[in-house]
Specification:
CATH class: Alpha Beta
Largest sheet: 4 strands, mixed
Helix content: 25-40%
Radius of gyration: 17 Å
Strand order of the largest sheet: 1-3-4-2
Number of strands: 4
Order of helices and strands: EEHHEE
Shape: elongated
CATH superfamily: Hypothetical protein apc22750. Chain B
Distance between the termini: 13 Å
Strand content: 35-45%
CATH topology: Translation Initiation Factor IF3
Structural class: alpha+beta
Length: about 100
Amino acid sequence: MLMSNTEEIPGRRIIEFYGIASGSTVRAKHVGKDFMAGLKNLVGGELKGYTELIQESRRESMSRMEEQAKSMGANAIVNVRFSTSSIAQGAAELFAYGTAVKVE
């Protein structure tokens, strides 16, 4: 599945539009990672546990978006975007969306 955050796939012509494809995942913080992040806040630096959590969430939401686009008959997704929102104390949603299309 080709994906782009622009309105087109370079070198390809869009021949059909299918509509919005999306995928999301909701993740909660891990108590151990949260404790370590609190300690890291005191001395500064990257919160690697959270970085890994976000990367995993991004992969999962993109995979779900791709599955939906395939079920629509698409072979590409353009205008890919991400959004996050807080769901509950310590839990957040990562939402990926874009336009499912068919390219030559």
